[in-house]
Amino acid sequence: MQFDTQQVEQLILLSVAVVASIFLLKLIMKCHKKKRLLQSNIYDIDLLSGEDFELFLYYFYKKHGYRVKLTPVTHDFGADLVIKSHGKRIVVQAKRYKERVGIKAVQEVIGSMAYYKAKQGMVITNSYYTQSAYVLAKSNGITLIGRNALIHMIEKDMVLLP
Question: What is the Cα–Cα distance from 131 to 67, expressed in whole angstroms?
C-alpha cells in the first residue's frame, strides 16, 4: 500500500493531535486531582491512600511557597518529601494511618536525614503517636505533627515546620 505526501501529512497531523489531546487530558486530570486534594478536610484525608496523602502534603506546602520534592514511591530511604525552607532541607515521613504511628516512622525519618542532607525531620500523620515515638522524636529533634495539628493546619490554611 502506497501513501502519497498528502496522506502522510494528514497521518502526522492526526498523530500530533492525538498526542496533544492525551497530554492535555493528563494535565487536566492532574489539576483536578490537585484541586480536590487541596480541598480535603481531615475526614477526606482519612480515606486517602498513602500516596495521595503524600501528594496532599506536597501540594499543601507548595501552595505556601515552599520548594518541595516528592521522593520515589519505593526506595525512598525513609523520607516521602523533602522541603526546602530558608536554605535548609527538612525531610518528611508521611503516615496516613488508622492506628497510632510508632517508633519505626521516627527511625525512618532519622535515617533519611543524612541521605538527603537534611538538618531537620518531621513525621506527619492523620492519626496519633505512640509514647515511644514521642520519646525517640524528642531525643533526636524530630517534629511530630499529629491529627490535631494537621486539622489546625488545614483549618487555618497554614504550614507547620520544625
Answer: 32
